Amino acid sequence: MKVANLNIEVGDRFSLNELREEFDRGSTNRGIEICYDEDDQKYVRLFSSETGPYNDNVRSGQFTYIGEGRTGDQELKGGNGVLAQSIEAPIPIYFFYKESTNTEWEYQGQAAVLDYERRLVPSEDREVYQFTLQRRTEGRERVDGDEQAVDLTRPERIESTRSRIVRNTQVSKSLKRRYSNTCQICGNRREQGDSQGYSEAHHLKPLGRPHGGPDTESNVIVLCPNHHADFDYGTISVAPTTLVIKHEHEQFVDGARLTIREDHELAEKFLQYHGEHIAVDSVNHQ
C-alpha cells in the first residue's frame, strides 16, 4: 500500500479485517499505530473508542486526544513522540472512531496535531499527554436516509506552510535488496505476492525534528513490519558493541544478535542513540 494511492472516504466503516486489507497491515491494539507504506512514508492510524479508558473528547472539529500508556506517567516516546514530532514534521494521520453501539471503526478523516501538554490526572495519580488535534476533511451526516457531506469543523481559513522530509529512497531500496527483504531482527521474510518480499527500512536516529538523524545506510536497518513497530514504540533495542537484542516481550529474539552484512556499515552511535532516546527503560541496555 502507498499512502498516495489510499482511497478511503470520511464516513467509511471498517472491521479489523477490512482495515488490514485497506492498509496491508493488521491492528496492534494500540490507540496510536505508527505505520509505513511501501515507499517508507511514515503515517499514523489514530483510534478512539466511545468506551475507551481515557474518555477522549473527539466529537468536535478541533478535539483533544489522550496519549498512550495506561499505567504510570506517560512518556513522550513511541506513539506519543510521533504525534508531538508531527507538529514540526507533519505526516498523514488517519483518525478512526468507534461508538459503543457499533463494532466497526468509522473513518473521520485526516487530523493534524496543533499542540500538546502534559497534565496531571488526580483520579489516577499520574501524568498524561493531552494532544490538541484538528480534523482536515469533511464528514457525512444522514439526512432523510441519505448520507450527505457535512463540515465537522467549519474552521476559520488560515494560510500555513508545511514542511516534509524528502527521503533518499535509494538508501532503503539498496539495503532491502541486499538483505532480500529479510528482517535483521528475526530473520523472517514477508512474502507479498508473485514471490516478491516485503520489508521496511527503519532509521535508528529518526529523521526530522527533534532528532535530526541522517538518511544514510549507517543509520538504517531492514525490518519486518512487526519489529519496525517495536523499534518505533521503543520495546526493542540493540546493544551498540555486542549487537545483542533486548526485547520487552518476545523471548525468541531477546538475547539473539542483530544480523549485519559485511557491506552494511551500521554505526554504533545510532544504536546508542536509539537506546538512550527511543527505547523504554526496561529494554535500554549497553
**Structural class estimated from helices and strands:** alpha+beta
Shape: globular
Radius of gyration, in angstroms, nearest whole number = 20 Å
CATH architecture grouping of the largest domain: Roll
Integer count of domains: 2
List the helices and strands in order. EHEEEHEEEEEHEEEEHEEH
User: Which class of the largest domain in CATH terms?
Assistant: Mainly Beta
Determine the mean pLDDT.
Answer: 84
Compute the number of helices: 5
Characteristic key phrases:
286 residues; two-stranded antiparallel ribbon; 5 helices
Structural account:
- The chain is of the alpha+beta class.
- The protein is 16% helix and 28% strand.
- It contains five helices and 15 strands.
- The strands form five sheets. Strands 1, 2, 3, 4, 5, 6 and 7 form a seven-stranded mixed sheet that branches. A two-stranded antiparallel ribbon has the order 8-9. A two-stranded antiparallel ribbon has the order 10-11.
- A hairpin with a 6-residue loop joins strand 14 and strand 15.
- The longest helix is centred in the middle third of the chain and has 10 residues, at 169-178.
- The chain is globular.
